Structures
1.
Amino acid sequence: MGKAKMSGAKALVRTLESQGVEVIFGYPGGATLPIYDELAKSSIRHVLTRHEQGAAHMADGYSRATGKTGVCMATSGPGATNLVTGLANAYMDSSPLVAITGQVPRPMIGNDAFQEVDITGITIPITKHNYLLQKASEIPHSLQEAFYLASTGRKGPVLLDIPKDVQLEIFSPHQAKYPALEGYRPTVAGHPGQIKRAVTLLKSAQKPLIIAGGGVSLASARDLLVRLAEKADIPVVYTLMGKASFPNSHSLCFGLMGYHGRIEANHAISNADVILAVGTRFGDRSTGPLATFATQAKIIHTDIDPAEISKNVPSYIPIVGDAGQVLEQLVELVPEQKHDQWMLELRETAERHPLKGKSSGVIIPNILRILKSLVQDPIIVTDVGRHQIFTAHYFPVDSSHSFVTSGGLGTMGFGVPAAIGAKVGRPDRPVIDIAGDGSFMMTCQEVAAAVAEDIPIVVLVMNDYCLGMIKQLQDASYGRRYEACKFGRNVDFARLAESMGAAGFKVTREDEIAPAIEKSLAAGRTAVVDCVLDDPGNVYPMVTGSSLLEYVE
Amino acid sequence: MRHTISILCDDTPGVMTRVSGLFSRRGFNIESLSVGHTELPGKSRFTIVTTGDDAVLEQVRKQLQKLVHVIKAWDIKQNEAVEREHALLKIEVEDKRRAELLQIVTAVQARIVDSSASIWILEVTGDTGSVDNAFNLFKDYHILESIRTGKIALERGPSRVMKK
């Protein structure tokens, strides 16, 4: 940064450039106009969204598809509060994000000024850290610190709230000394003693199992996990967030675990004698009832966040550290082993419990099967609901950063904007959002943003004219009293898409599925396929009792 | 189970909200909280007294430790620390009871820090038990107002959280 005096807004844009930011997803307002004025002179791309929630999800999707830190921006007041769902979503799934919000000028803060809201107060529980900047000279350092915090340790969103007069304030940039972050020192390498204990325990195991969580992907440690599993011949199950953490078609992979998990995966958890859990927080959808979870197993839990150790599930050997470093340490020391008997047990269980989805008709499993045959190495994005679980089961992904889903918060409406962000980050890969009709309607206005910005995503709307997961729960637990789950008036999603300038297709017969998908992939522009399902079909397996072994399939 | 938690943190705006928010989110009532400067420039130290299940409290401690401005959060063991509270009581003094009240003031090592015609302000310092005891003895008199600080606690011996 030169010695010349500059405004806070200019310093902000300069610092974003020096951080390597390529794109900002945002929506302007009165309190961010000085920044936009500088952004116009910058090489950084700005994607104008149709709602600030979309901006946050786009930055999130961008981050998940690339591993980089996503950036979103909104104005003060309602602009900032509209980011809240997106920030909470990124926080729950440990997605690195930097959010910038405008704030009313300093002298007006606390006066209930027009479009004033205490966004740093609001976002304390849903950000890793946040700042309310008081001086333009703080901007360069705080922004650098925000990127550092977002992308290290347990990753997550960081918010900077910048009053408009601070953006306009002229200052002389200088190399001031700032205090180090004394309270922030993430443990990266696993403790050697704990690593040795873990190796000894793994060596002694007859029925070892690896749980792959989202932390493996966040640490870019997927290949190391494959090496470890192969070397020690250990079967792998994954959480929803960990779906892309291990190649799904690998012979050691036994699928999704948990509440909607595969029978063989949950059988493995319930019968394993040693479990190595990597980068998972043992969320309730992954464990089912805790009292009966993995009762036969001694658990080695490795996570970058010490607060996750023994939070939900007691760990026998905790290892705090980065998944990449810890797995490297383990791969080094673990001996080559064979667990033929255990593997046979799991394979037989798997054969006895195939997925029951039919490969005919306009139903989600069949659409996903056809999609799989028509597209090479896509990034699959999902919304939240029945289609999300179907996708986890019926669309195997084998490369990294291939599965983008809202795991922890379960945010309906995540899909379309997350897919847009993913496509901006990875224009070389097909990006396909599998949506439900409920989820799609929550953020479908972002299709217009994708069209305007020429971002060719494909959205497949699994349209059953109802809230499928709600209906499934009402089936299971509320005597089929379908209250507030049917939409009443149906929307023609193909025409809705066309009205926004996207290609729209409608599928009502099985023989229309493949042509519609082919056309949408070849359209070269944003495309929406309205798949009118002829049998909504509940998603199974589903745990129904007090343990993972009591289920409907 | 009652716990005393000590937190060393940066002295920065908003740190109180971040700290207390973690307690309320877990449904913990903060019985007392005191915060002030330390021998380290730019650093504050909290002493928080709270009641709760050990495992959940350990989770709160770990979450506190994750706050960027928190340098260290730890549980102080009562028998390894010196603990003090401070209280002020405004008492209306009747002439005929002045002598006996003075006896109690001496007995509990309180100090009269302000006195006017018939109003005394007493200062009491001690561990929680001693301050409770003083309040007990004064309760038969006409207490107009009283106030207690939160507890502060320092571990015995040469240990220190952080060097300058």
Note: The mean pLDDT of chain A is 96.
2.
Amino acid sequence: MLELRDITAGYDRREPVVRGASLTVAPGEAVGLLGPSGCGKSTLAKVAALLHRPAAGQVVIDGEPVNGWRHAAPRTLRTAVGVVFQQPRLSADPRLRLRELIAEPLRAVGRSRAEAAARALETAEAVGLTGELLGRRPHEVSDGQLQRACLARALVLRPSWLVCDEMTAMLDASTTAALVNVVEDYRREHRAGLLAVGHDRVLLDRWCDRTVEWSRIAQA
Amino acid sequence: MTAPSTDPSPAVGTETPAASSASSASFVALRVLAVRGLSVRFTMRDGRHVAAVDDVTFDLAAGECLALVGESGCGKSVLASALLGLLPANARTAGSAVVDGVELLGAGERTLARTVRGRRIGLVPQSPAAHLTPVRTVGAQLAETVRALTGLRGTDARDAALTAAARAAFPAGHLDRYPHELSGGLAQRAATAIALVGDAPLLLADEPTTGLDRELVDHTADELRRHADEGHAILLITHDLAAAARTADRVAVMYAGRIVEIASAEAFFGSLGPRHPYARGLLNALPEREFAPIPGLPPELGDLPAGCAFAPRCPRADDACTVLPRLAGGVACHHPEDRHA
């Protein structure tokens, strides 16, 4: 289980943007979190992805509370959760070629260059990126292609959990359906849990096992 | 309702020869924009050519909204940049694009700055918060635009700014705010107010709803519709089919730089549906429909297949598709969906 227990989170000493939010994702389960712009759902997504330390409350993975937070949780724990954000142009290092972008998490956890390259290639193929495209840098590909690379990067360490924060908000209908299919194939194969955050009710209802309203899980 | 224009000459009857030759079949009374055979080609550093927009032809009348839809990288935004004269130096254009009597392609910077941008074409930008200057209030930016476009000063300028704000439904009480103090919806209206100052007959909305939540998308779409109903011609460039369905009178689908289908929004989104296999695929990918992606990726614009660019992804493709299909009867396909079952 990925459990968010009574999370309060914010930035600096300002008023917290998330108050008392609780949410659970079971292994293999897809949960959609719906909320309007500015409600704090992206902040909660960052907490779930172990990238943003909550001011209060606990993140618990498979019964183990996440400890040792600095700004983010320790890297060894973070590898359990893959994350994809809304804007691929802000997520992707503009200097890296797509194949380096996808392989980087593997290198960061100490895999050999050869193994990282092979695994990256495999994951890239799963998201529909092949051949010469992988030698390009972010400015040389479309938003859709770059978001595919960002999804591959999130999956390359084979995480047990995936957090998708408005992953498809910038994308056309066909690319949206394609990326959702990639996530679902991955989840079936690895029995991974998903937290999909967004504002598109039709999409999240279609994609997820259940959807919850922001107002139901957090205090106003 | 007449087309608003700062130009004393009427919006019609000032066609170039290129435009008039193709207009005989058209009975549009107040044509604001006439695009004929518009092509944009980039020369890359290694000498290759990339045809980002290829042989695009369409008309747009006052009071009408045309949605230009397609996947990312299909050439929609390059088309917008071509109309505004904002293409990079390695771009070459061909064809003709006449807005309210002015030929845009090949026009000099002076012409574009003095007669086109803001005066004949108002731009409703993709991310209004990034489009506005962060260090000045909305009111100051509106006033600056009024001074630049109308030459009005003092009280008259302030009145004009207030009028533009009111037309964009931007609350006058918020004019002293800075862009970061506005919600996404209000920032969008502020940017729209600036686009309305010059009374441009054509509004160009480039992905105005990207990244907004559904409520704001609907709201922005409805505002654009209202501006169309008030007599503006609107070219809505978007990948958001829901926003297009809500706003547009007609839909043009772009694929690999070409218009592959142009149809009334009623037929396109209604029970008849699109006729081009690509357009059908795009619509079927919506989560409220089949939620099935079109297989494969869009082709590289620098390396297009001979014939129909969609053929490698198309379930209907056969030998005929090695010949480039012309746009005829609103669709460029050798095997379009038959409307008469």
Note: Strands of chain B lie at 31-43, 49-61, 65-69, 91-99, 102-103, 121-124, 202-206, 233-238, 250-255, 258-264.
3.
Amino acid sequence: MEEFQVINNYLMIKLPEEVDHHQATTICKKADHYILQQNVSNVVFDFEDTKFMDSSGIGIIMGRYRKISCFGGKVYAIHMDKKMERMFDMAGLNKIVEVLE
Amino acid sequence: MMTQMNEQKNEMEISFDAVSQNESFARVAVAAFVTHLNPTMEEIDDVRTAVSEAVTNAIIHGYEKRDCGKVYLHCRLKGDVLQIEVMDKGKGIENIERAMEPLFTTRPDLDRSGMGFAFMEAFMDDLEVESEVGKGTTIRMTKKLGSSAWVDSED
């Protein structure tokens, strides 16, 4: 299960084991609720528990970036594996998302 | 001994409802089908990603989430080469070339990234797309598997 936590103005999203289209629908909905209701300006995606991701994961991040970047917010990604980094690079997300570790 | 294994053929076919719960089912089914070839973790993960992209496309775009169609998954093994066919009888693709462009999507409203075909191309050895508007779409992908098993079996 995905987990959401707001620390200061950072929304931490711990992504589930499998990030696909089925999971993405709920994650996007919940994330947008936090972004709008709790005025968070930055989003951190944590891939620590994630063992599988397809292009739906890229879509989740792109969509959240669009929502917060116009207010000067930033998007971060932590605990990504090599495959995820490759997918990030192919989609050009490495230019808009700060990858940590 | 290894050359004998190379001649082996195997085939499986399943169809399932075009609902998002079945995306993970399709990935697991294909991964299980090829386990006896001892593919590497990366190879399995690449296949899982490609299957996920093709099946998700069929569900979201082919049937436009109307939950009223079936996705047909057909896998063939010829030696260590896996052929995957994902077919839907949905609305079809008007412009295949454009659909395959990285970052192009007709559904940004659904938070789609437009990377589906790019990932299928990147993670499989070969990708073919056949589509007819109003009739449906067939995705054919191939990938050679278990190449590392040869190295592992040396000692």
Note: The longest helix of chain A spans residues 21-37.
4.
Amino acid sequence: MTPVVEVRGLRKVYAIEGGEDVVALRGVDLTIDPGEFVAVMGPSGSGKSTFMHIVGLLDRPTAGTYRFAGHEVSSLDADALADLRSRALGFVFQAYNLLPRTTAMENVELPMIYAGVPADKRRRAALEALDAVGLGRYAHHQPNQLSGGQQQRVAIARSIVNQPQLILADEPTGALDTASSEDVMALFGRLNVERGMTVMVVTHEADVAAHARRMVMFRDGNIVSDEPVREKALV
Amino acid sequence: MISLAATLRLALQALVRNRSRSLLTMLGVVIGVAAVIVTVAIGTGAKTSVANQINGLGSNLVIVIPGSVQTSGARTGNGGASTLTVQDGLAIAKLPGVSAVSPSVNVRAQLVTGGQNWQTTVTGVAPTYTTVRSWDVSSGRFFSQPETDEAAKVAVLGQTVVHQLFPDGSDPIGRTVLVRGVPFTVIGLLSAKGQSGAGQDQDDTALIPYTSALERLTGGTTISTLMVSAVDGDHIESVQSQITGLLEQRHGIVGGKADDFQVRNLQDIAQAASATASILGLLLAAVAAVSLLVGGIGIMNIMLVSVTERTREIGLRVALGARSAAILRQFLIEAVVLSTGGGAIGVVFGIAGAAAIAVFAHWPSSVSVSAVLLALAFSAAVGVFFGYWPARKAARLDPISALRFE
């Protein structure tokens, strides 16, 4: 089975003008197989966000190799990365990042527009994705008519609509109350179990990470622990 | 890869999301384009209006006068020769590009009626004179061709003569006026024409058939002036040279011999006046162009604000797989839609404004199709030009910091 993500010796160094270089990642090795549900944890400054941006093809490593679904991607140009993002990746952000004054349906359609999917197919896929997150009835609601939890579920529908090989969620519960957080994480769990979707969630909350099946801990640009989550033990 | 149509739809959605701001941004271009169209219409109207006034003087008029003759060493001035005949006029009337010819026989004469008398220039002319001089009667009628053929004793009086001979305000039509003792019946009155360019009172005149003037007043066959009307301003040059050729032939002037006539026109005046109108139009157009430019800068300003305000949205689009070219295109299209939309609204307002000014100023206002197309094309160009920088700024945003932007 080809891993979805396979990084070896991943380094990221930010050159600060007039100061010392900041090393965000110091040679990270990690493999994520299809169907995994990984939580990436760590305090701020541990390099977990940088790691997510590189895995999400929004940033390039300074050194090391990154094979995405078996293909070396560290040498691709910006347009090729953009095309890959539109086809193979789904993003969920802390602040939902839905377009204002735009219906849930149109928001979910957006990634397919950039992937060049025809309109009738877009509509069907968008409705299906909204059904999958339990918001089929809200297709024509605008973000300001939805609760935070609902908005985040629209964003999740948007992330799965292109059938991506990997869903990346950056602090997806950071702006939600406990009940909505539970809802959203349970939704990721269902997508993982029922649809076999590969999910990577970046968070600093242990009870959020507990929904995953594997937990990777970052500290000072290194992975300090990588172990399966014991069922129910932390819940 | 995203299609152009899909990008256009994204751009329109973005503009509709900010409906009021989009409309306000358009306003600058609306005013600019409307101003361009109105001022071009005013400029054209002014030019047409000036041209009409000059035509009133007879700008298509070519005047043939006798030249100078030399008698035993002494040269008379221009007009001194008695060489121009009615037959010359008839020959000129047959030339292509000539619409009408009227001979003119000038006689200073004392006019007498009842208890009043007045000395004026009695001018013998043909019925075509009204066309040639663009000068019509205000009451009564002008004499006809049959009256001219039989040298009828009829006269049409200028307003000054009317006031001098009939100070009591009685109707002169039908009354008899003695010209050098010959009784003429007044059949019409000329409309007031005012002073000529040289300050002469053009209304101080009485018109009679040229045949009557020749037979009853001068007793000769030579005439003072031939007034020739060209079909339009473009034909004046060719008409002038044809007349010269024709008269040289008729008068037997060959080799280096000096012409015994002169051919003149009023084009110089017309050209000066229309040049003035053109400069005025250019000045107005420059002011209008500046306002269009300001409208373009307004678009750039708002687009820059919009790029900053939508930083997170741009980051999102990039994360979702938009190439930077797609972002650039979307923002460029937004700018062009704003500017051409503003341009289209501006055209409507401009045409309405030009029509209103035409009504109030009594000008022949004409909104030319080319001005409208030019304004639209220019407003689209404004959108591309002033939209490019903000669009490029949007396309070059770093998606990671854009997504974090608060």
Note: The CA atoms of residues 110 and 230 of chain A lie 37 Å apart.
